[in-house]
Amino acid sequence: MEEKTCPHCQKVYSWKKGLDRHLQECVGNLAFPDSHSGYQCALDRIGKLPVKVPPKKKFKCPQCPRRYQWKSTMLRHIRTECGFSPQFQCPYCPQRTIRKDNLVMHINRKHGPGMLNFT
Q1: 17-54: per-residue pLDDT in tens?
Q2: 3-class secondary-structure state, position 60
Q3: Which of 41, 62, 89, 93 is the most buried (most CB within 10 A)?
Q4: Residue-wise over 68-90: b if at least 16 C-beta within 10 A, else e?
Q5: Could you give all domains of the chain from N- to C-terminal order, each with its CATH number?
Q6: Are the CB atoms for 109 and 103 separated by under 8 Å?
Q7: 3-class state of residue 14 by DSSP
Q8: What is the pLDDT of residues 75-90, one digit of tens each?
Q9: Residues 6+ apart with CB under 8 A from 73
């Protein structure tokens, strides 16, 4: 049986499952230097998970510093959010939101799904 070694701390495991658990619990997704690509996810070093790369937010709102991954989301932000004050008032508490879907989510989370009976 081939021994498995942690690329971070050199701890040796008899079973791949033990090494996998060690990497998930102790190391998580720490980035390790890699000679080819700069940095790489610890779990990718043993071929378990792909490298986790944050999404590129290439669409910037021209009116504020917010950035978006999708152009449609940025356009919705400009059309309904940017520069607007919150217009949707929660009927159960002082919470106000800019978008109605965020108000619905707030009511479901804070007041319970049965409390959505409002106009």
Answers
A1: 777 777 776 555 444 444 443 434 444 444 554 445 56
A2: strand
A3: 41
A4: beeeeebeebbeebeeeeeeeeb
A5: 1-28 (no CATH), 59-111 (3.30.160)
A6: no
A7: coil
A8: 999 998 898 899 899 9
A9: 59
| pLDDT of res. 54 | 63
CA 51 to chain centre: 14
Give the span between the Cα atoms of 102 and 9, in whole angstroms: 44
Secondary structure percentages of the chain, helix, strand, coil, to 5: 35, 15, 50
Q: What is the pLDDT of residue 43?
A: 46
CA separation for the pair 95, 89 (Å, rounded): 6
Q: Please count the residues of the chain.
A: 119
